[in-house]
Automatic annotation (TrEMBL):
A GO term, aspect molecular function: GTP binding
Highest taxon of source: Eukaryota
Protein name: G domain-containing protein
Keywords: GTP-binding, Nucleotide-binding
Biological process, per Gene Ontology: mitochondrial translation
GO cellular component: mitochondrion
InterPro entries: GTP-bd_ortho_bundle_sf, P-loop_NTPase
């Protein structure tokens, strides 16, 4: 989100990003995104609990990319997505 705002508003340098968690190690800088009202963004490292409480929570984290795909398995993640869509009748 941070880099999208920086890119579209041409506000300065974007933060370093990567295809896996752990790229942001500290607060990099303060970026002004609006003058009126005065708004700043800070890019901070994400925090993930060292213990995942349930399989369902782990699958949700894997589905949104918080956990590396190869740790769970891409087929299992895809199966969980289809299961969830079927549970909510969100398929066509």
């Amino acid at each position: 989100m941070y880099n999208i705002i920086v890119f579209f508003h041409i506000l300065g340098k974007a933060s370093k990003v990567g295809g896996e968690p752990g790229i942001t190690r500290s607060v990099l800088c303060r970026i002004q995104v609006s003058e009126n009202p005065l708004i700043y963004l800070l890019d901070t490292p994400g925090v993930l609990s060292p213990r995942i409480e349930s399989v369902e929570t782990g699958m949700k984290l894997a589905l949104c990319g918080t956990i590396l795909d190869h740790l769970v398995g891409e087929d299992i993640i895809a199966d969980y997505l289809l299961y969830t869509l079927n549970q909510h009748r969100q398929h066509r």
